[in-house]
């Protein structure tokens, strides 16, 4: 983890309408190293999704600089994979066709890569299933496979497990960790879940609201796989909560 995959410098974002201007992001600055896993946590409305959309190239109306692998981000592209809270699969396509999407499975290279992705996300046996025949967690694994097939430099995940029950969420966190360790794509995850951030990340960016700014960047120096009930995990939970505790109580919506 030496070179920066993503560099965000002096990022400011203001939403403007005819009668008001809302300053949503204030002087956001951080880097994401190649192969690094960074989570962003903060109160509702602090601009986490706005920040992710800017990095994804889905919102170009901002001040500051966002560079991916040295290139200024100017729009969406396959170098940036995006995973939403809801999986957004095509209901009329099978699992393997959803992963291939606009690419033809008749192309032997695409077929080979899709098979490798199915293996990576552990969906062997479900290639011909339709989204309505698989669980929410499996659907998110299909969405992740579809994004990774395009070999993005960074995978952007906006509360990808927020709609899943606690058991499935834990399982998905373990799956995502396996995928990341095998695939080594840089990961930027937005979450409300402190344990999820500690379980997965190399570093946690803690944000404050109105306007959204960085409160602290906490390094998670625990070996993988992490034990959620260990004293060192508990100590980090306390540290993240401490950073969040300065934020007004009525803003908080954490899951721990
Ligand atoms: N298109 C828009 N026009 C005006 N204001 C917006 C727009 N999109 C978002 N906002 C405002 O920007 C702020 C940040 O929103 P954003 O969705 O990025 O926050 P968030 O931290 O992701 O919230 P949550 O955790 O609830 O998903 C909020 O106050 C929101 O109302």
UniProtKB/TrEMBL annotation:
Keywords: ATP-binding, Nucleotide-binding, Transport
UniProt-recorded Gene Ontology molecular function terms: ATP binding
Protein name: ABC transporter ATP-binding protein
ABC transporter domain mapped to chain residues: 6-234
Pfam family name, one: ABC_tran
InterPro entries assigned: AAA+_ATPase (IPR003593), ABC_transporter-like_ATP-bd (IPR003439), ABC_transporter-like_CS (IPR017871), ABC_transporter_ATP-bind (IPR050166), P-loop_NTPase (IPR027417)
Record flagged with keyword tRNA-binding: no
């Amino acid at each position: 983890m030496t070179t920066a995959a993503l560099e965000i410098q002096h990022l400011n974002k203001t939403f403007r309408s005819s009668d008001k201007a809302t300053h949503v992001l204030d002087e956001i600055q951080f880097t994401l190293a190649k192969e690094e896993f960074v989570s962003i946590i903060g109160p509702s409305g602090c601009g986490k999704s706005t920040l992710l959309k800017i990095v994804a190239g889905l919102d170009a109306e901002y001040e500051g600089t966002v560079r991916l692998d040295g290139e200024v981000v100017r729009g969406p592209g396959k170098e940036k994979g995006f995973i939403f809270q809801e999986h957004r699969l095509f209901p009329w396509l099978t699992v393997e066709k959803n992963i291939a999407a606009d690419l033809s499975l008749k192309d032997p290279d695409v077929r080979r890569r899709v098979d490798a992705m199915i293996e990576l996300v552990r969906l062997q046996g479900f290639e011909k299933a339709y989204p309505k025949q698989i669980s929410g967690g499996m659907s998110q694994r299909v969405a992740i496979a579809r994004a990774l097939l395009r070999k993005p430099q960074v995978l952007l995940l906006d509360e990808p497990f927020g709609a899943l029950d606690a058991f499935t969420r834990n399982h998905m966190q373990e799956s995502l960790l396996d995928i990341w360790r095998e695939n080594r794509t840089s990961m930027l995850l937005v979450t409300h879940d402190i344990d999820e951030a500690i379980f997965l990340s190399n570093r946690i960016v803690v944000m404050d609201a109105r306007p959204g700014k960085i409160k602290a960047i906490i390094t998670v120096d625990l070996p993988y796989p992490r034990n959620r009930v260990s004293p060192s995990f508990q100590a980090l939970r306390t540290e993240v909560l401490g950073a969040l505790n300065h934020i007004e109580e009525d803003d908080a919506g954490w899951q721990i």
